[in-house]
Specification:
Shape: globular
InterPro entries: Tauto_MSAD, Tautomerase/MIF_sf
CATH superfamily: Macrophage Migration Inhibitory Factor
Number of helices: 3
Organism: Zhongshania marina
CATH topology: Macrophage Migration Inhibitory Factor
Strand content: 25-35%
Structural class: alpha/beta
Protein name: Tautomerase family protein
Radius of gyration: 15 Å
Mean pLDDT: 93
Length: 128
C-alpha cells in the first residue's frame, strides 16, 4: 500500500497521473503486476501540512509499505526511478518529493483472509 500526502491544491490536479507514474515505477523496478495498485491520497489544507524549508507548495510525501525482502539496491533503484519519473512526467522537482519505504515482515501483512507468509499464489516476487 502506498500513501501520498500533499497540499490539496497541488496534489489533486495531478493525483491520477502521479498514481500512474508511481505504479509504473513499481512495475518496472519491482515487477508488480498491473492489477496490484493500492494508492491512498491524503489531500491536506495548507495549514495542516508543515514541511521543511526550501520546499514549495508542491512538496509531496510518498510512503511505500511493502513486505520485507527487497534488496537495498532494489529499493534504492525504486526511489531513484520515482524521483526521475515524477520530475520528468509531472515537473515536480526532487527537492519537493520525500519518499520512505516501510517494510514489514510477511506475517505482519493481512490480506484475503490470510497473512503474507501464508500466501503462496502471489503474482510477483518479494525477494528481488
Amino acid at each position: 500500500m502506498i500513501v501520498i500526502y500533499g497540499i490539496k491544491e497541488k496534489l489533486n490536479p495531478i493525483k491520477e497521473r502521479l498514481s500512474d507514474v508511481i505504479h509504473g515505477c513499481m512495475k518496472n523496478v519491482l515487477g508488480m503486476p498491473e492489477d496490484k495498485r493500492a494508492h491512498r491520497f491524503i489531500s491536506l489544507d495548507k495549514d495542516d501540512f508543515y514541511y521543511p524549508g526550501g520546499r514549495s507548495d508542491a512538496y509531496t510525501v510518498i510512503e511505500i509499505n511493502m513486505m520485507a525482502g527487497r534488496k537495498p539496491e532494489t529499493q534504492k533503484a525504486l526511489i531513484k526511478a520515482l524521483f526521475h519519473e515524477i520530475d520528468s512526467q509531472l515537473s515536480v522537482a526532487p527537492v519537493d518529493v520525500e519518499i520512505t519505504i516501510k517494510e514489514q515482515q510477511p506475517y505482519q501483512w493481512g490480506f484475503r483472509g490470510m497473512t503474507g507468509d501464508e500466501a503462496n499464489d502471489l503474482k510477483y516476487k518479494v525477494n528481488v
